[in-house]
Amino acid sequence: MFVRFSGCNLRCAWCDTPYASWNPKGESVLPAEIVARMESFPARHCVLTGGEPMIAAGIRDLAANLRERGWHITIETAGTIPPEGIACDLASLSPKLRHSTPAPGTAPAGWIARHEQRRLQPDVLATWIRDYEIQLKFVIATATDLEEIQTLLASLPPIPAHHVLLMSEGITHEELLARAPVVADLCKQVGYRYCDRLHIHLYGNRRGT
Fold first, then answer.
1. Where are any strands of DSSP class E within 32-175?
2. Distances from the Cα of 31 to the Cαs of 60, 66, 129, 164, in angstroms?
3. Which of 22, 34, 50, 63 has the fewest C-beta atoms lying within 10 Å of its C-beta?
């Protein structure tokens, strides 16, 4: 089960959920209400995502409540906010590369500088890596992104290659297929895992998927 939180502290140029990240209009729901809705389904593995879930009010209470009820908790986060002991079984960290920064004129005033300042927090990433089971997921626009990724990884605690996932940048079936061969070749070069976007292929880029 996916629980999507609204709001984000970044403004990625290629964000695929601007409805949740930039101009959030979702419900205001207390952690206990979220848990009650989740318990009505048979799933026991949840993904807390966004936006950026780590800035959501009540996220720590929600995670603690889910842990007490035996849920497996994955948190999808850019890794810019320290975990500070949050209940989490798998941290799916998605550090943002240089190509995520919006071009001039494409983001509200002040957001380009804020994004560039916030997008990469090696000390915060290192804390997640030391304290949690993790995977690192990178969005790939071109083959040259690999050098930036490897430079970042060299500055972090050791990470097995199979814990690193590469995913094509794109929000349409056609864009993903066009970049797939390049991304797959990069994975084969260094032993990283290929990460597809199955929901795009099945349903397109729309809410609720």
1. 45-49, 72-77, 90-93, 134-140, 164-168
2. 9, 10, 26, 31
3. 22
Cα angle 9-10-12, degrees, rounded to a multiple of 5: 160
26-30, Cβ contacts within 8 angstroms, sequence gap of 24 or more: 30/58
Q: Across the strands, what pairs with 3?
A: 48
Q: Does domain 2-203 have CATH number 3.40.350.10?
A: no
Could you state, in order of their start, the residue ranges of all structural domains in the chain? 2-203
Phi-psi bin for 60: left (phi > 0), alpha (psi -120 to 50), beta?
A: alpha
Query: Among residues 128, 21, 133, 3, which one has the least CA distance to residue 59?
Result: 3
| pLDDT tens for each residue of 112-170 | 999 999 999 999 999 999 999 999 999 999 999 999 999 999 999 999 999 999 999 88
Closest of 178, 196, 205 to residue 18, by C-alpha: 205
Nearest to 121 by CA among 94, 147, 139, 102: 94
How far is C-alpha 165 from the geometric centre of its chain's CA atoms?
12
What 8-state DSSP symbol labels residue 146? Answer: H
pTM above 0.85, yes or no: yes
